[in-house]
Amino acid sequence: MLSGTQDLVVAAGVESMSMVPMGSTVSLAMEKGMPLPFGPGWLARYGDQEISQFRGAQLICEKWGLTRRQLEEFALESHQRAIRAIDEGRFEREIAPVAGVTADEGPRRDTSLEKMATLAPLREGWELTAATASQISDGAAALLIASEAAIERHGLTPRARITALAVTGADPVFMLTAPMPATEQALARAGLKVGDIDVFEVNEAFAPVLLVWSAETGASLEKTNPNGGAIALGHPLGATGAVLATKLLHELERTGGRYGLQTMCEGGGQANATIIERIA
Q1: Tell me: the pLDDT tens digits for 89-104?
Q2: Contacts of 98 (CB under 8 A, 6+ apart)
Q3: Of 9, 44, 132, 269, whose CB neighbour count within 10 A is largest?
Q4: What are the angstrom distances between the C-alpha of 70 and each of 41, 162, 199, 207?
Q5: How far is CA 280 from CA 156, 158, 161, in A?
Q6: Gap between the terminal Cα atoms of the chain
Q7: For strand 160-169 and strand 138-146, is the pairing parallel, antiparallel, or unpaired?
Q8: Distance separating alpha carbons of residues 276 and 143, to the nearest angstrom
Q9: Mean pLDDT, rounded, of the chain
Q10: pLDDT tens-digit profile of 222-233?
């Protein structure tokens, strides 16, 4: 749309992590002799330290002083919100049944802080456990994005408009902190303040991502992922962006909110942010 080359686009994503495990494409590339992105320039600047989202999440915990208990309390809230949303039928309008599955299978009704406390950390001495990371999932989502000309030509009824977009990068070693500057850039481009946003959808790659994002941007966690996030609902990698946008629009419609902001971290220390305005 922004380039002017398209008027009507189906923006869709799909991921089957049960069939294509995370990291398998990297392994395939190595088998084919393709180089990894850590060349001489990278080594000169960052050395040969481990670069991974797992370590990045732990580094965030260490820098901001987050404890395992804080992460687990956040994760438990994500499950509770998702279960409430399912029980109240909040997702029914946005989910298309597949092979008899009509609801997300990730949320755990029987989880508790006590159960989370029994899990081993990802590494000895780390704050992170499987309970405070996003779930490996299969999923798909799609959006129909139209220009004003396409809306008029096809007689469509728009539900929201895209107000601002931002894509930015941050420290590639921490890797997961870029949603903070991306959020600030999107708000600045829209001429809005964080308090003007009614609903936030932020990818729960790991619990510390949300906790530091909220602390640094001033965004309310009460208004963030009100129906649960990826810790409870899963993170099918290629589909998550469209999933967040779908959840965001439906929650604005459910509550009568005006502005919604979604953001998610990406590989290499990047992040995107989008602000939409409900108009229907």
Answers
A1: 999 999 999 999 999 9
A2: none
A3: 132
A4: 37, 34, 22, 9
A5: 12, 7, 10
A6: 21
A7: unpaired
A8: 13
A9: 95
A10: 999 999 999 999
